[in-house]
TrEMBL record:
<feature type="compositionally biased region" description="Basic and acidic residues">
    <location>
        <begin position="399"/>
        <end position="409"/>
    </location>
</feature>
<dbReference type="GO" id="GO:0006310">
    <property type="term" value="P:DNA recombination"/>
</dbReference>
<dbReference type="Pfam" id="PF00589">
    <property type="entry name" value="Phage_integrase"/>
</dbReference>
<dbReference type="InterPro" id="IPR002104">
    <property type="entry name" value="Integrase_catalytic"/>
</dbReference>
<dbReference type="GO" id="GO:0003677">
    <property type="term" value="F:DNA binding"/>
</dbReference>
<dbReference type="InterPro" id="IPR044068">
    <property type="entry name" value="CB"/>
</dbReference>
<protein>
    <submittedName>
        <fullName>Site-specific recombinase, phage integrase family</fullName>
    </submittedName>
</protein>
<feature type="domain" description="Tyr recombinase">
    <location>
        <begin position="174"/>
        <end position="386"/>
    </location>
</feature>
<dbReference type="InterPro" id="IPR013762">
    <property type="entry name" value="Integrase-like_cat_sf"/>
</dbReference>
<dbReference type="InterPro" id="IPR028259">
    <property type="entry name" value="AP2-like_int_N"/>
</dbReference>
<dbReference type="InterPro" id="IPR010998">
    <property type="entry name" value="Integrase_recombinase_N"/>
</dbReference>
<feature type="region of interest" description="Disordered">
    <location>
        <begin position="395"/>
        <end position="420"/>
    </location>
</feature>
<dbReference type="InterPro" id="IPR050090">
    <property type="entry name" value="Tyrosine_recombinase_XerCD"/>
</dbReference>
<keyword id="KW-0229">DNA integration</keyword>
<keyword id="KW-0233">DNA recombination</keyword>
<dbReference type="GO" id="GO:0015074">
    <property type="term" value="P:DNA integration"/>
</dbReference>
<comment type="similarity">
    <text>Belongs to the 'phage' integrase family.</text>
</comment>
Amino acid sequence: MASISSYKLKDGKKAWEFYIFAGVDPQTGKEIKIHRRGFPTEKIAQQEATLAEAEIIRGHSHYQTERILMADYLNQWITKLKVNVKEGSMIIYRYNLKKYIIPKIGDIRLAKYTLKEHQEFISSLFNDGLSLNTVKLINGTLHNALKKAVAIGYITKNPTVGVEFSAYAKDNSKKLHFWTKDQVGSFIEAAEEDKEPMWLSFFVTLIDCGLRVGEAMALRWSDIDFSKNTLSVNATRIYRAETGSNAGKIALDRPKTLSSKRTEYMTARVNDLLQQQYERHFSHGNVQGFRFSTSHNNDFVFTYSSDAKFGQPLRSRATTGAFNRITNRAGLPHIRIHDLRHTHAVLMREAGLSLDDIKDDLGHKDISTTQIYAEISPAKKERKPSTIRKIPKSVNTKRAPEHVDKSEVFTKTSPRTFTT
């Protein structure tokens, strides 16, 4: 809470000072800061700062934190107190604060916000028709904000602890949407007819490897190893941040969780399609085992191949538009692009993979997230997948040898071969 720094006196000697943020004046909206200086050592400055902080917490200072409104504190938290957080999480926090939290509870005083008020707030979100997952994300944002309020002494207890969701979970949980193997085949056939060839490789990679959209958009050629037949997830595109003053820029961040940073084996058709994508942009001949990396946009795997936009990286709106266009062409029921990830998991589950294997494949942090696939073909739960097989490492063809071939899981018949 205290910021301690040194400064020089006129005689050249060093002294120490501290600043303490003591809240926001509810009348003026200005920050309240306590500034004291003249301490001979950093240790003494720290001791005095600790005493000053204790005065604020005990209410002995005339700067009373009990007058702070929720809106004032939450704005302070998101701009000054929230550190070492992924940009993707910050985008969600800012969105939840602006759209849901501050409009509903911003006028309540922080010290007066109790579990009762919080339960009423959560209930109102369900009454507004929000899903359980969305409400939990909003609750998580507020929980983190008020956890910091406890840590710095603004309040003594986090009022979000103990809130209940169970009464709403069944009615508000979303149904799992996915395509069948035949529907996947129809989608791919329609994608082959698209004027932009990059979309075929992009969507097949999502389907066969189960990547999140942002993970696929962030893939670089340095993440692809054709000889080992692998792609590595090392980053994600934060396309929600690529708006406003950031329009036209590329926002990258660490993967969603530590488990999300992973290496995936490619199916035969993904390997072939990515080689085709590479050769459309570069002319290095045989790319088996070649690892390409640059600092400019050409380093991204999925960039446009058509003349008008050649080399330009994907944008979120364009991926949605292409997905809907191809879905309509195939005459398929509409799902979200993210549901291709569910489709991947469901087809792997039907092929006999255990939930633990699917958890690792998708990069889930823990098995609880993967449990949504538990009821998919339960009779096959313990069956070893005959369609997941190893093939010889010494194959004298352009296609790199596969360690794990999942192609039959995702196609109606045998894996399709794409020639260059």
